[in-house]
Each structure stands twice: as structure tokens, then as C-alpha cells.
Amino acid sequence: MVELRVLGAVEVVAGGTRFDVGHARQRDVLAVLLLDVGRVVPVDRIVDRVWGDRPPQQPRNSLYAYVSRLRGVLAAFEGVTIERDRGGYVLLADPLTVDIHRFASLLDQARRTPDDHAALALYDEALALWRGTPLSELAGPWVDDVRAELEHQRETALLDRDDLRLRTGAHTAVLAAPAPDSAAGERAAAQRIEALFLDGRPADALREYEVVRARLADELGADPGPRLRGLHERILAGDRPDTGRPAPRQLPAAPPAFSGRAGELAALEELLSGDAAVAVISGAGGLGKTWLAVRWATDHADRFPDGQLYVDLRGFDPAHEPVPADRAVRGFLTALGVPPASIPPEPDGQAALYRSLTARRRLLVVLDNARDTGHVVPLLPGGSACSVLVTSRHELGGLLTTHGASALPLRTLDEQQAWDLLAHKLGAARLAEEPEAGREIVRQCGGMALALAIAAARVAARPGRRLSALAAELRESRLDALDTGELTASLRAVFDASYRSLDDASAAAFRLLGLVPTGDTERAAATALLGSARPLRVLCAANLLEENPPGRFRMHDLVKLYAAELGTETDDAGTRLAASRRLFDHYLGRAAAAMDRFSPHEPYLRPGGPRPSFPDDEAARAWLDTERVTLLTLATSAPAELAGHVVRLSATLWRYLYIAAHYQDAFTLHTTALALARPGTPEHGFAGHAVGMTLILLGRFDEAAGPIEQALDLASAQQNDLLESMARNSVATIDDIRGRRAAARAQYELALAAARRTGHALLEGIALCNIGEHYRWCGDHEKAIEYLDASGAIALDLGSAGLGGPVLAALGSAYAGLGQAAEADDHFRRALDFARTGGNANLELSTLNDFAATKTGAEAIGLYEEALALARRTGHLHGLALAHHGLGAAHRAAGHETEAAAHLEAALAAYTELRVPEADDIRDLLGS
């Protein structure tokens, strides 16, 4: 909703965005209309208010220009406009969108509300609308008069609110405001004196009274009025409304650099808005639970006129034992005014007295750092007027279930919140000096408030220390860098306190989770690693692990580092290796099962043995996409004893990584497998071919030749037809792209013969498709169609979209070469459907380039642009070169010489790197 503001600078704000409303005179005009929103303001009156006795030569023309520009600004907001009416202008808008009118409305409601607490909330809302000096940046006699009147209204509202605060027991809020200066009125002085008296400081109140009395006598020659005189008599008589001891105010100091938890503060406001409300802030150590609780409690202390009780139960203190509940109860009884001799000796009697004393009071009880539900229950107050705020590293499920408590799980700060917190502690200017280092510190701290506080403290302790130096320390050893040498300011100590609260089985599971290669893992994988699902529930309840979304478990990076450290120090190598093997066995089995769905006609690429199944192809592909990074990290970090697992995973995922165009991931995985596979084995040959094929896709043809030729030599020596067919296809691909047609054709024919010897229909179909593509590149389109139809028949018989899609795309090019445009378009579009439905980025890229080559003008440019974007994303160098080449030619044909030259230069660079004949074609184009 739009906000029209005058209580500060004159502004128009919507959605947090401030709109430019022009220079000072134009803002003057807007201010005049806003103050009289909904009412016609005559032109002469506007001129007088805006220019006073110095109007321009043609004030009406100037006014018309300003109104016209303001209409343009306000046109973006529904229901807000300026209209000409009866010799003047009127701004039409809901008056409550104008802050001064909303201020007046809220004050009117507050003064008519019989409930003092509700009225106080209305005053707070009204006064929060003030952002500084009203109509700031504007000047003139009329502005000065209006500003003075508005300031008077605000001062009256402040005084009215303070009277309510005194009436409702919120006198601490009156004292928190700056003391009135010597020019303040008698009413403000009386309020402060009464607040001092109610706070249990009668001597201070009397001293303040004497200062005010003397000032009135010196300046006005008058005595204090009835209110001050009556108050003076009450102070002398000790006539406080509550004749007992002062209400307890036990809250610790609120954090000075609190930031980033606006949503959580609002959630607490809602959770603690009712009677007898109990809220539990739970979360891992170091997230800032205590900061949040104390900040909310301090901000809302005036809602609890009978006081605030606080105890740190030390449930997870690294240096102290937990505070027993009965000791905390005795402390509360003392705070509530019970003499030590009157406290019952037995814990049950103490708890009963505590509940009796709190039954009729409006108290806030803050129970910080509770260990479990049993730690909290004896400290719950009696009656329905108190509220309780609990913090714990555990979820306290018993408290939520049996005592109706509400939960506020605390998560890590997001990147912006973390940056804001660091800026609060170090200063925005300090971060601005080294923004990249600042961002790295934020990333390394992972949104953990304590980590950020420690990092800031280490910088602040040495003023000359550069942020980049701390960032380097964090890169090298995060847990060491986040340790100040004190138990309360060390992440290891914080994590250790949570870890030591676990039972032995859960502690062992926590250490093993340090073996998980990435930030999160699926339930089945975690269960395979641990041997049981039970520890997962325990660790989640202890907030050392988080289940989000359901079925996936995540451990904070810093917690995971700690778990890994513990595992290395505590568990023997055999235990850790067995767990790693279980985890890898799980992922290898799931990957094989997913590939059974993804590419069902290539079982020869996958390990045998029993494995789970996926309900459908979509679920299998979704699992592969979700777990890709985990699988890659698992392989590259595996111990030497699991080398065979890595080699099998490489072969299993080969087709998926190729089709989905994850070339860099494929190169990393296959290179790792090649290094681990035993030379002279078929596994070594398949890994070498996978490395070479990936290098082809990346456009590194010269590097690809070596491993592919080695694979081919091995295949020939061992008469491995499967490996031979795959390797010869790859050799032929390089030959074809580089224009060595005869050599390519010979290799393709040998690849087809080897494929037929294997008896695998899909492998034969691939070889046939490759030969068809080859003839299409040679310009023999009829021969191409012959081979492609044969390949398509195999695809149809197998129901293989992975083969059928490339066949359709190649047929599209062949039919285009024969001049059969409609047939070509149909095949291209069907191929694109196959590619996009199946997530085949490789096929999509080649089809877009080939389809674009059959078009002209804007249609060609559009298809080439799509291909270029996809080639950039995947890193397919040859596809990138073709797209740039096509765009250069298409733009040149359209007369766009600048665009044409840029694309042709880019194509030349790519072709030169590939060392293909097309580079000469580009040079000819650029030279023409």
C-alpha cells in the first residue's frame, strides 16, 4: 500500500521503495495537498503557502507544472490522484494513507479506548509514524507554523502516553526516555518524578521535585501545581500503590548489536500475545537464542508491570553444571520478596509457593538454556496472567505436548541478515573497505550468530587487522579461526556441550555423520551410514541435525566439521571405513537403479546385484539431479579402499552426465576413476574412454585422443567389442568434426560391426545413427536417411527416447538438405520435444543449431540465440562455435554488421581453439 508522509521528509513510499517527488517547491505543493487531503485547496491559498510574499511572475503556471508532475508520480498508485475542482486542487486518497491523518485517527481511538493497555498500544503505533522533524527540508512562514503545530501535537501525545504508562505499571519506559530539560512543562516533570517513585527511588524523586520547585519559583514566581504537590505528599508518606518491595527486573542487558531477526521477533509477539502463553525458542548452539529472547523481553517489558524473572539454567554450559530447578525456584521466591526464613524447606513446597505468588501477577518468566522439559516444568508460574519464554538446544517435545507450549525453531541467518549483523559489530565503513573479504567471512560463518560475533571480536581486538587475513584463516581452518580462547566464545566448546548431552549411540552416529560428503543427505542414505534411523530423531531433537525438507537431513557446515574432527579422534579406522562402505554401497545401488530407468538398454554399463527400484522415470531423474553433487563428492573424497566403488560409479553415471551436459562433473568423476582403475583392465579402458568422450564435448580434441586411443588399443587386444564400438565412435567423431571424412567413415563402419557383435541393439542403433549423421555432413542426404531410418526402427522397437531423439534431429537436417522443409520442421520440433521432456541438454543444443541452420532472418536468430545460451551454460565449445557462426551469418544477411562481426570473431576464436576447417570459412567471411 502507498504511504504518503509528512512526519519527517515529504515522501511517497510503496513496497519499501521511495519515489522521487521532485524539488523543494514541488514537495511544498504536495505537503499543502496532503495536509488537506480530500478537501479542495484554492489556488491562491496554495500559492500563498508555497511562495509566501515572493511568488514567481506566473505562479499559476508554475503551480500547474508542479501538479502535473505530481500527477505523473501518483498515477502508479490506485485510488491516489490530484484533481482540479472549483478554483483549486484536491488530492483524493484514503486519509489513512497520509501519516499525519493516520496519527490523528490513532490518537482519537486511543483517547476513546477504555482499556489502558489497548490505548497504550495505539499511542505507540501513532508515535511510531514520526520519522524526524515534520516537513523537513522545507522552509517558509507557513511551513514553520505547521511544523510548530505538529510538534505540539506530538508532545501532547507523548505526555498522554506517559500518563498511561504510569497508570499501567510501565514506569520504566518513562524513565528510559531522556530526562526533560529545564524548559519542559510541569506535567513532564511530574511524570518523571512519579516514575522514579514507582521505581522504588523516593530519594531521587524528592531531589527531582526540589529542582522543579526551585525552577518554578525562580522563573515564574509560582509554586508547583496540584499534581506535583499531591505527588510530593505521597512520596513523603511512602504511599506507593504497591507497598511491597520493587517488582523484579532481572533481564540481562539487551544485545547492543542485535540484527536480522525481525521475523522471529514478530513471531514471538504472536506466540506470547495470549494469557498463560509459553513459547520455546529452540535451535543449535550459537544461533543467538538468548539474544533473541532478551531482545524481545526487553522490548516488551512494559507489558508485564509486576516484573520480569530471568534465570540461565546452564543446560548446555561448557564450564558449569546445569542449575537445578529447585535452586532456580528459590531464586525466584527471593526476587518476589519472600524472606529466606519463610521459604519452605522442601522443593514441592517451594514450587507451590512460587505458583501461588505468581497466580495473580502479570509477570514474564525467561528460562534460558534449558536442558529438557523436566528442567522447565517446576519453573512454570501459576495462574493465567504470566507469560513464559524458554530457550533450549533441544526441541522440548514434552513441553510442547503436555503444557501447550508454542515452538519457534531458530534457523541460521540468511546472507543479508548475517551481513547486517557483521556491519552492526564492525561498522558499515569497515566492511566497505574489504567487501569481498567481508562476504567470505559471512559465507564461512554459515549464518551462525555466534560465529559472526567471534569473527567480529577477533577483528575488533586488533584494529589494524585486515578482514582478508581473517578470511584466509577461516579458509584454512574454520574451527580454529572461530576460537577466542575462552569457553563461552569458542564454537568447539559450544558444540561440545551439545554433543556431551547425547547418549552413546547417538554420539557415535553424530561422529559418523561427519563422513557425509555434502551438506545434506536423504533418509535412506543416512540410515545406511548409521545402520539405524533412530539416531536421526535424537539428533534432530537436539538440533545437531535438521530435517528440511521432510526426508532430507542437513548438518550445519561448522557442526559437520566438528563431527568429522571428533570421528577422526574417537573412532578407529575400521569403523569409519565400514560406515563409508555402507554409504557408498547405498548410493551406488540407488544410482544403478536410477540408471535402469534413465537408460534401461545399457545394463552393461552398471554393476550387477540386487538394488532398489524407482516408481517411474521422473522419480529416477529427479533423484539423479538431486544427488549429483553428493555422488561426485563421494567419489572424489573416497578412501583408497573404495577405489572399485568409484570406478563402478563412473561407468554407472556416464550416460546421465553426458545427456544432462554436466561436462565438468563428468570430467572430474571419470578422471578420478581412471586414476583408480587398474591398468590393463576393461574398467580402465571404459574410464579412459569416458574421459576422452568428455574432453570431446568440452572441445579439447587433442587431449581426448590419447585416452580414447588407449581404450581402443585395450579393446582390440582383449577383443572387447563393447569398448571397441564406443571408442571407435569417439575417434570417428573427432575425425568428422575436423573434416577427415574418409577416416571417420572407416571408424564408423568398424564401430557398427563391433556393436553388432555385442548383440546389444541400442549400441547398434547408436552406430547406425552416427553413420547417418556422417553421410548427412557429407551431403549424401538419401544415404543418411537410409541409415537413420534403420536406427529409428531400433529406437522404436526398444522404446528408447535417448536414441529416438537424435535420430529425429538428424532426419530433420537430412530432409532439409533434400528441400523437404515441412518434413524437416516436423522432425526438428519432435526432436526438441524429446530433448526438453527428457532433460537432454546435449540433444537440445545440437537440434537448435541444426534447426536454425535451415531458417533465415529473425527465426534463425532466435533459435541460434537459444543454442548460444545453452552452450554457454554447459561449456560445449563446438556447439558454442556453431551458434556464434550461425548468428554471424544471420545478422550479416539482415544487414546487422556490428552484431555479425562480434559473433563471427567469437566463432573464429572457438574454431581456432578446436582446430577445425570452419576457421578458414570465418576468416573468409570477416575478410569479405
Automatic annotation (TrEMBL):
DNA-binding region, residues: 1-93
Span list, region Disordered: 237-258
SMART domains recorded: BTAD, TPR, Trans_reg_C
Domain OmpR/PhoB-type: residue ranges: 1-93
Biased composition annotated in UniProt, kind: Low complexity: 245-258
Single GO MF annotation: ADP binding
Top-rank lineage group of the source organism: Bacteria
GO biological process: phosphorelay signal transduction system; regulation of DNA-templated transcription
UniProt keywords, alphabetically: DNA-binding, Transcription, Transcription regulation
Listed Pfam families: BTAD (PF03704), TPR_12 (PF13424), Trans_reg_C (PF00486)
The keyword Transcription belongs to this UniProt entry's keyword annotation: yes
InterPro entries xref list: AfsR-DnrI-RedD_regulator (IPR051677), Apaf_helical (IPR042197), BTAD (IPR005158), OmpR/PhoB-type_DNA-bd (IPR001867), P-loop_NTPase (IPR027417), Sig_transdc_resp-reg_C-effctor (IPR016032), TPR-like_helical_dom_sf (IPR011990), TPR_rpt (IPR019734)
Membership in a protein family: Belongs to the AfsR/DnrI/RedD regulatory family.
Name of the protein: Tetratricopeptide repeat protein
Species per Swiss-Prot/TrEMBL record: Amycolatopsis iheyensis
